[in-house]
Amino acid sequence: MTPKTLLVVYHTMTGGTEQMAHAAAEGARGESGVVVRLLRAPQAQPEDVLGADGYVFATPENLAAMAGMMKDFFDRCYYAALDRVNGRPYALLVCAGSDGQNAARQVERIATGWRLRGVAPALIVCTHAQTPEDIARQKQIGSADLAQCRELGAALAAGLALGVY
Known about the structure:
alpha/beta, Rossmann fold, FMN_Rdtase-like_dom, Flavodoxin/NO_synth, flavoprotein
């Protein structure tokens, strides 16, 4: 059987989203029959999107929106993948300072345009960083939140391996 590919695309500035993306990838790597590709948003290209069977998108919330580098990723890949990835599963991770809902909505709208299938509600981890100093400092995501990221990655990979998605 040909292995399935799970593409994890993320952006980070203060490390929180990177920790979450790595945890999801780690969880997914525990599933045999699934190859996990972990790419920073600037490195991810349309051929990476087209070559994957499922996706995890991970973005920080910046100014109540998805990170600009994630938007850049979607801008560069959107039309090349349009109508070529229909029905593929995805999950979303958001590292938020406030609530993360708008960043999640933005990514979900793009995923809807790609006709992707969400397999879980967006997993939003709120750091409550509200001062300029807290916003700029390196983040440390808690073990319980990272465990949820690992579980989400594992569940998506299991669904790919079993042919559920």
